[in-house]
Write a structure and sequence with these properties.
Layout lengths: L4 E4 L8 E4 L6 E6 L4 E4 L1 H7 L3 H4 L14 H12 L4 E8 L5 E10 L3 E7 L4 H18 L4 H14 L5 H16 L7 H31 L2 H12 L4 H25 L5 H30 L6 H59 L7 H35 L1
Antiparallel strand pairs: 1-2, 3-4, 3-7, 5-6, 6-7
Helix pairs in contact: 3-5, 4-5, 6-10, 7-9, 7-10, 7-12, 8-9, 9-11, 10-11, 11-12
Length: 403
């Protein structure tokens, strides 16, 4: 297969042609903190059309294409300067004015930044190009880079992504799997990460089910108070029962919040950790492949190889740390579930008191039986969900510790 091919451009400039390269190629470069190129792999030079001597010491924007929205680069630098890694679809320009698309994975080094780029081919890539085209039109109408960055994040939410991290993790995972070049020694690790993501997603579904149950019975204490008022003296006990149930349910709802809070909840922390752990390990493999390619170059420099090897090991260690974090968080969830189930038992006592009152008022069409039926359904469903949740948390703990 040829190292690269050219096809007719579908961009705004019909004079351009697109340079495509095979999936096995990884284009790598390093810059200092100002964005000045300090390392360029042979593959990067080849596809960009520059000699290595032309790139060394040059600003990285030498390959920037004008069709890239300024808002995307605003996001890139905002994220990198915050000390976080990032990946993004990028359209670059070659020396002779042609172009090529990459998914760029950008991470930190001690002296600046390191980027590995792979060939993008997924549906998300095609969708992203359309979002970029819309951003370019809005920037042409006066949108600032910061406004463009915020607009892109809003677009991602419209596409169903919770945030930028969720989008970039999905993008790298999709493109990585599309390459179908997984390292043999990492196959089991990646499979376990996929299993962890599924388990955590299932756990989120169970907690959402419990939340929906709370929404369905939220008005029942009020209904009990209304009923108590309607029955006057005969319903005095119902007023007390209502207050007890309401207080206990609110306490239980607060415990559920420890699981599903979108910022600090255990499940959100676990989900972020598994995505970041997988993304980091995928990045590590890409740098490992790049290192092997650099070692085969005629002008191979030991310092360049050492830099890539050290960065690969650093990413692998970060990935392991994130998975240890998942296992640690998972250990706390069964305890929360046990606390919640104890409170369900307490609510059952209150529900039993309702049944007693219903028996006392059997000759009165109070509507109390309907309230009791709804509470029973909520209790049974919540107890079942908590049992499943605790079991899945134990699986997460075991799998997280096994990698």
């Amino acid at each position: 297969m040829n190292a690269m091919t050219k096809i007719a451009s579908t961009g705004t400039d019909n004079a351009e042609t697109e340079v495509r390269f095979p999936a096995e190629k990884i284009l790598v470069s390093a810059t200092d903190q100002r964005g000045v190129i300090t390392f360029a792999s042979e593959s990067f030079c080849e596809i960009a059309g520059f000699g290595q001597e032309e790139l060394m010491g040059a600003p990285h924007k030498i390959v920037r294409h004008p069709d890239m929205p300024k808002g995307i680069f605003y996001l890139v630098w905002e994220t990198l300067k915050a000390g976080l890694p990032l990946c993004a679809y990028v359209k670059n320009r070659t020396k002779n004015g042609d172009y090529y698309w990459v998914l760029a994975v950008m991470t930190h080094t001690e002296n600046g930044y390191l980027s590995s780029r792979i060939k993008p081919e997924t549906e998300l890539f095609e969708k992203t190009k359309k979002l970029y085209a819309e951003l370019l039109r809005e920037e042409a109408n006066g949108l600032t880079p910061e406004q463009s960055a915020n607009r892109f994040k809003a677009m991602l939410q419209e596409e169903g992504f919770a945030n930028l991290d969720a989008y970039t993790s999905y993008a790298l995972n999709a493109e990585f799997k599309n390459r179908d070049r997984m390292s043999a020694d990492l196959v089991n690790s990646f499979a376990t990460m996929d299993e962890l993501e599924t388990l955590i997603s299932d756990m989120q579904g169970l907690v959402n089910n419990i939340e929906q149950g709370f929404e369905r019975v939220r008005g029942e204490p009020v209904n009990l108070r209304i009923l108590a008022g309607r029955l006057e003296g005969a319903g005095a006990a119902l007023g007390t029962i209502s207050q007890n149930y309401d207080a206990m349910a609110k306490e239980m709802h607060g415990l559920v919040g420890r699981l599903h809070d979108p910022e600090t909840g255990a499940l959100q922390q676990m989900h972020s950790a598994v995505l970041q752990g997988r993304t980091t390990l995928q990045s590590s493999q890409l740098f490992s492949e790049a290192c092997e390619a650099v070692q085969k170059q005629e002008n191979c420099i030991d310092d360049d190889v050492r830099m890539l090897q050290e960065h690969r090991e650093k990413l692998q260690n970060k990935s392991r740390a994130r998975l240890i974090e998942i296992s640690s968080i998972g250990k706390s969830i069964p305890d929360i579930c046990r606390s919640l189930r104890r409170r369900i038992n307490g609510l059952d006592v209150v529900k039993l008191l309702c049944k007693v009152e219903s028996g006392r008022m059997r000759d009165v069409d109070s509507g109390l039986d309907g309230i009791i039926a709804r509470l029973e359904n909520f209790h049974d469903n919540t107890d079942r969900c908590l049992a499943e949740l605790s079991g899945k948390a134990s699986q997460v703990t075991q799998k997280g510790a096994s990698i």
